[in-house]
Amino acid sequence: MQSQPSIDRYTALFKQQYANGSARGPEWLLPIREAALANFRERGFPTTHDEDWKYTSLDRIAAGDFQVARGPASVSLDTVLAHSFVAAVHARIVFVDGCYAPELSSVTNSEVRIESLAAVVLRGDAVLRERVSSWPGEQNSLLALNTAFVNDGAVIRVGRGCRLGQPIELMFVATDGATPLASHPRNLVVCEAGSEAPIVENYCSLGDGKYFTNSVTDMLVEADAIVDHYCVEREGANGFHVNQLAVEVARNGRLTAHTVTLGGALVRNDVHVALNGEGAECTLNGLYLLDGQQHVDNHTEIDHAQPHTSSRELYKGILSGAAHAVFNGKIVVRRDAQKTDARQTNKNLLLSENGVVNTKPQLEIYADDVKCSHGSTIGQLDRDALFYLRSRGIGSDDARSLLSYAFASDVVSRIRIASMRERLDEYLLQRFGRN
Amino acid sequence: MLEIKNLRAKAGEKEILRGINLKVAAGEVHAIMGPNGSGKSTLAHVLSGRENYAVTGGEVIYNGKDLLAMSPEERAREGVFLAFQYPVEIPGVSTTYFLKAAVNAIRKHRGQDELDAMEFLALIKEKMKLVEMDQALANRPLNEGFSGGEKKRNEVLQMAVLDPRLAILDETDSGLDIDALRIVAGGVNALRSKDRAMMVITHYQRLLDYIVPDVIHVLYQGQIVRTGTKELALELEAKGYDWIKTAPAAAAH
After folding, report:
1. Searching chain A, which residue's CA lies closest to the CA of residue B164?
2. Running DSSP on this structure, what letter comes out for residue A159?
3. For B154-172, how does the pLDDT look when each residue is reduced to its tens digit (9 = 90+)?
4. pLDDT for the residue A384
5. Residue of A291, A379, A369, A289 whose CA lies nearest to A333
6. Is A392 in contact with B88 (Cβ distance < 8 A)?
7. pTM for the complete prediction?
8. What is the ipTM of this complex?
9. CB–CB of A295/A321 below 8 Å?
């Protein structure tokens, strides 16, 4: 059952923010935040009694005494760049402990508008205001918590027909301060009709201290837009991250989303894609590499709401130590969504005896003329492949490394940003100890 | 080079090799023929160190060393090569990347300098001509989506690059059309040399039209029941394996 103290602690923190002035924002925002807090109080943190959280306990987050950062800690640009996975960007917007760090960001506004959420809110932008007003009623307690505490985030609008050759990178840096901090970033991305944009969300930590990131990204892929979204989570050893990505794809729009989890004590990714227009497509790729006591939970949901929509999904994970991975892939095909074509694959490689994987496809099909398939595997390194490599002179340990690398590289090779693909490939080579 | 003495091996509870005796000298090509289930592939796998089989008796001396005491990678580094009947598909690793790792593991073992990327590329390009293989194929994930012929050509390419002392070809002809068979056999023939011994395992006489062996052995129920020259293959082709099953066994040399 939900422990009351954690809810009370968040309520107290909420009041304290307003008392000490660390929560910024115009007057109209306060009732929205209060309503969201009330919603959160009502729901509490999800527990393992909730079907969607069956294998992932948030007790450690609920019990944690996380403060909210008052401003960005001082971090050098070199440090930030060292944690980036892309060599060249169209723009980079950096948040440190959830606070916008303009001096670390490089943002130019042309056919792409990039601003911090706080700035847009302060300006009183009418469209945003209307949108924000709908937030408190969300049927999801972590969203409600995010709304109650949201400090900042990125607001991005890629103009009609605009084709970006280089990515927009959103970096969320957790510093290793003495006090455990929580941040609740909220990003809004609109890719207008016919635009093409690579968007990278990068979550990283500068140390192994405790922190909690509760991030939410809402994205709109308008008609004929092509969006490549990448979320790379290189969290610290004691980092907790709950991440929600919700995307609506309009007619003939195409979304490719990659979720790459390389670290963290507990990471939960919710990716929700609504294929809301005919001919809309999405590809969801995921990679999670776990060891020690790490826990990574990927929940995806693809909603085929219109005819002739298609989705492809490939999630792969490698576990060592006593790590625990969860994959839940929901595919909904609405009654009108005839000619839907959906394929889902989840593959898990266990390198140790103590790793645990819970994987579940969840198909809800209400149309009758559709193609849907799913498959999942949990296994060790293929003995035949190991023998094949060894029979060519490659040592047993090197053969294992090579096969682990190959398993992960299958996902990384699908990344379309060359520098990111190369840097992640380099990371894999190091992680799996190839010389 | 290779001496197999009274080799016995089991897969699970079943004894598959029941006392194999065989001597192969450098420069010789030996064909091992036999009906399905006679133990041909088991022999190939036992020689290359497959863990699925338990050796229950006998010994194998390779260049004066106890072959059975070596790990699969040690055997490869000492110059043993197995061309697989069913080459394994490995997504995520290109033939080039994999072969470079293999070549350098072997070179290191021999006390030679490792090849750098350029040197290796030159080597593989030269050897690819031998099996009429396209460069693009070598950059694709190892064997993934390769046709049967491409897989077998890739095996012969690996053999050419790794330059083994003892090459064991396990049903390299199976699943090949005549053009692919010609290319594969051409590659193998080009690798015949006085320093290298080969064991060519096949069910059919057809391959031996292209790779002419010095000696032919017929394996039946885990033992060598006939040994002869290439005429033996023709006799088998004419009479079929039933003839072996009924005729009294001749002593293997």
Report:
1. A392
2. P
3. 999 999 999 999 999 999 8
4. 94
5. A369
6. no
7. 0.88
8. 0.94
9. no
For residues B69 and B133, the model is more confident at B69
Contact A385 B158 (CB under 8 A): no
Q: Which residue has the tokens 């149309």?
A: A367
- Rounded CA-CA distance B76/A394 in Å is 8
CA distances from A258 to A86, A187, A304, A360, A421 (A): 14, 17, 19, 19, 12
Residue of B82, B93, B99 with shortest CB distance to A391: B82
Task: Note whether A382 contacts B: Cβ–Cβ < 8 A.
Answer: yes
A398, B101 Cβ separation under 8 angstroms: yes
Concatenate the DSSP letters of all residues of A83-121 into one string: T-S-S--SEEEEEETTEE-GGG-B---SSEEEEEHHHHH
Is some CB atom of chain B closer than 8 A to the CB atom of A418?
no
State how far the Cα of B36 lies from the Cα of A69, in Å rounded to an integer. Answer: 73
Which residue ranges of chain A lie beneath pLDDT 70? 1-3, 20-24, 434-435
- Mutation choice for B interface testing from A349, A377, A388, A421 by most B CBs within 10 A: A388
Q: Mind telling me how many Å the CA of A379 is from chain B's nearest CA? A: 15
Which residue does chain B place closest to A388, by CA atoms? B88
pLDDT digits (tens, 9 = 90+) for A185-240: 999 999 999 999 999 999 999 999 999 999 999 999 999 999 999 999 999 999 99
